[in-house]
Amino acid sequence: MTVKLHARWLEPLQKEFDSPYMADLRAFLVAEKAAGKRIFPKGADWFRALDLTPPEAVRVVILGQDPYHGEGQAHGLCFSVQPGVRVPPSLVNIYKELQTDLGIAPARHGFLEHWAKQGVLLLNNCLTVEMGLAASHKGRGWEKFTDAVVAHVNASDKPTVFMLWGSHAQKKAAAVASRHLVLKSVHPSPLSAHGGFFGCRHFSKANQFLEAQGRGKIDWALPPL
Length: 225
Fold this sequence. Notes:
Blueprint (H helix, E strand, L loop, with lengths): L6 H11 L2 H15 L4 E2 L7 H5 L7 E5 L24 H14 L10 H4 L3 E5 L4 E2 L11 H14 L5 E5 L1 H6 L8 E5 L16 H11 L13
Parallel strand pairs: 2-3, 2-5, 5-6
Antiparallel strand pairs: 1-4
Helix pairs in contact: 1-6
EC number: 3.2.2.27
InterPro entries: UDG_fam1 (IPR002043), Ura-DNA_Glyclase_AS (IPR018085), Uracil-DNA_glycosylase-like (IPR005122), Uracil-DNA_glycosylase-like_sf (IPR036895)
Catalytic activity: Hydrolyzes single-stranded DNA or mismatched double-stranded DNA and polynucleotides, releasing free uracil
């Protein structure tokens, strides 16, 4: 298993990397590749969210489910796609809410590394997927690993914002401590966004909380590529 992540994550997650479930996950992924199956994202990007956002820098946590399973989309950050790839529908709705909330015009791309580099942890529940098969790596061990990531952020004494969109994300971070700000809504998917995501104003609420805690605000406006 390729491990490329910020050095500050290695100590709190070492127990996970050394655990039997991670050995099983590693064996599964090696076997899948040996069988000729295509796995997204590429191995160097499996831990991209943890590489760009070290633990002490985390100010906001956004939780996704699977990486995108289409050709050239996934690169290790939830909701984000690589440059030149069409903006996916859920991210289109995130941009719409950003415009309503903060007056930020929708970006013409879906590359969210600008957020990650400011302390927005864009973490998927599972970090790999087989091409064309959503949820194909569910239950293989990634969930335990990402639970450990969420638990480490939750244990920090630095007040952090958890944006929990949809029941899946809300279950993932159900026990967040009261010193953090938990913002909940339905998922931004076109199937549910009109049920409460639009108008949630999570981005301005996050910035208000972070500034009140002396942690500064996130610049949610994405620069052009």
